[in-house]
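Moderator note: this is an archived Q&A kept for reference. The question asked for a predicted structure of one protein chain; the sequence and the answer are reproduced below.
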Amino acid sequence: MENYVLILLCLAAFIAGFVDAIVGGGGLIQTPVAMILLPNLAVANVIGSLKIPAFSGTSFAAYQYVKKVQMNWKLLSIMAIIAFIAAFFGSNLLTLVHNDFMKPLLFMVLIFIAIYTFVKKDFGIHQAKEHSVKRQLFYAIIISVVIGFYDGFIGPGTGSFLVLAFVSVLGFDFLHASANAKMVNLATNFGSICLFILKGKIIWAIAIPMAICNAFGGWVGAKLAIKKGNEFIRIFFLIVVIGTLIRFGYDVFFK
């Protein structure tokens, strides 16, 4: 592998870590870049290797959030365990089948997310606790299973989907949603990593340098999100969702 390829991968990892720390969706940056720069590698090897920088960046971002933002540890513990298991099985499926059939569905979902977030100005600005403990737990389990499996199977955009779920379904504001989503995302990444290690799919010469850069990007992004607050995160979220729409739209209509 040429040195310039590794440099570009590390640059993509830093940007991905930065974006992911604020609103999630870092995989939508580093995954396409890696697929373009590493065309001769199997998809499972590329995705497996990218789980290491994703985990490191999320770890550093989560640490920054934990110091400053109140976390719902009881709920998170349950979500993390379920999300870990779901991601493990999702990654196992990735090694067996092709996943392009998911992109048209995701494209439509993202259109709805972008329109809803843009039109509803107070979306994610304030916490809206409307659920009983049992109902909140029920929704949390569904979110963990669906998004956990998605992260293991396809991956890109998981952080954004988790933030959206915490805001729209569980009633968190954007800051608390970003913070709590990081902990669940750690579990999904770890579940996938365990599977890919068992399958021997991780290329460590690529994964470790990218992990260092992603972690630094995550550290910077989390500090900025905490400092700027909900309105900044909401705007950034819209930008990432629109970028995601463009990316999936290209895959759906032009590939």
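Archived answer notes: The chain has one domain: 3-254.
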